[in-house]
Amino acid sequence: MKVAIISFTEHGALLAHKVSRGLREQQANCACWLKKKNASASDFPDIQILDGSLSAWTEAQFRETDALIFIGATGIAVRSIAPYVRSKKTDPAVLVMDERGRHVISLLSGHIGGANALTLLAAEITGAEPVITTATDLNGKFAVDAFAARRDLYMDSMPIAKEIAAWLVEGRRVGMRSAFPVFGSVPDELDQNGTQEIGFSVTIRKDAPFERTLHLVPRAVVLGIGCKKGTEEEPIRSLVCETLSRYEIFPESIAKIASIDLKKEEQGLCSFAESIGVPVVTYTAEELKTVQADEEFSESDFVKSVTGVGNVCERAALKCSGARRLLLPKTAAQGVTVAAAVTDYTVCMED
Predict the structure, then answer these.
(1) Pick from 66, 74, 121, 69: which is nearest to 90 by CA?
(2) 317 in helix, strand or coil?
(3) 73/149 Cα distance (integer angstroms)
(4) β-bridge partners, 221
(5) Rounded to an integer, what distance in angstroms lies between the CA atom of residue 306 and that of residue 286?
(6) What phi, psi does 209 have (nearest 5°)?
(7) Beta bridge pairs of residue 106
(8) Which pLDDT belongs to residue 225?
(9) Alpha helices (H) along 88-228
(10) Which of 290, 346, 344 has the alpha carbon at shortest distance from 319?
């Protein structure tokens, strides 16, 4: 986590140093600033003096960091962040602490951005009283957005997520389904078996077990991709999107792309992987030959003559995922082949 801390007084700067030191012990990447007239950098080691505008600083931190901590008045923080607040899905966590370290407030992005968790950590470091105002936390209820954020699950509908939170705060049960094994205690307010009007599903598919379904999508799909030398990015993207759409699989479920080592530096393949933010994993022909499967591979003599193995995409998907059964069999178009397999994913209810 990348954290930016700003203070406005000498007491605040000392507190910023303490918070930063504690967060670094938790593997956070922290940087501190002091916005104060006539301040000297030599008086405050490890703290940068902010000579520019607070607004410009805030705008930059909204783009570049995961969390901002203001040590000063809440009003300063609110006015500073107001022009840059956009969405619960993208806004960083924002905290406010008074300069004496008596209170620390979770101001923005409490669940998805992690502000509530960071508030508790800052309170532990400083001895401050944590101030958290989200209703699910205050009432001790399950928070679906926090659950998703801590597990890096994609949420496809913020309106439904908000509606689920409202139902839970009102003491009503919501449905829960999972396409993956569930471990740990499931809260009583989540109904895994009954028929509920609204609920969430941990899945890679666009199913609808409830009238209003929130999909929580894990990165659990490995795409196996083969392509002719020199294939550009667009044919790869087109076939992947078309194939996932046909089988109603969320593209956000892609965790990795797997192929043969001959494609390790294939520009089109690498560019596509970079554009969706996943790594490319490659294997030798000998490694792909050893892959075992519950079904026969769709072999090609031509592919074997070029690569040394008769099927790249299916074998690579299984090799990388550790599975024996394909989620999607080979699909081919424009010199590109795509297959998919699912990793051994599990849902842990407890943090």
Answers:
(1) 66
(2) helix
(3) 28
(4) 254, 342
(5) 14
(6) -70, -15
(7) 95
(8) 96
(9) 115-126, 135-138, 144-150, 158-169
(10) 290
For residues 240 and 256, what is the distance between their CA atoms, to the nearest angstrom? 13
DSSP-derived pairing of the beta strands 336-342 and 328-333: antiparallel
From the list 342, 319, 332, the residue with the least C-alpha distance to 236 is: 332
Closest residue by Cα to residue 342 from 263, 276, 249: 249
Q: What is the pLDDT of residues 180-221, one digit of tens each?
A: 999 999 999 999 998 899 999 999 999 999 999 999 999 999
CB 132 within 8 A of CB 111: no
The C-alpha atoms of residue 116 and residue 134 are separated, in whole angstroms, by 9
User: Which residues sit opposite 222 in a β-bridge?
Assistant: 256, 341
What is the residue-averaged pLDDT of the chain? 90
Map tokens 């659990």 to a residue. 220
Whether residue 101 contacts residue 128, with contact meaning beta carbons closer than 8 Å, is answered with yes
pTM of the model: 0.72
SS3 281: strand
b/e code 9-19 from CB counts within 10 Å (16+ = b): eeebbbbbbeb
Q: What is the CA radius of gyration of the chain?
A: 25
> Alpha-carbon distance 72 to 90, whole Å?
24
CB contact at 8 A, 131 and 103 = yes
Put the strands of the sheet holding 67-71 in their side by side order.
47-49, 29-34, 2-7, 67-71, 93-97, 103-108, 129-131
Kindly state the tokens that stand for 232: 């550009």
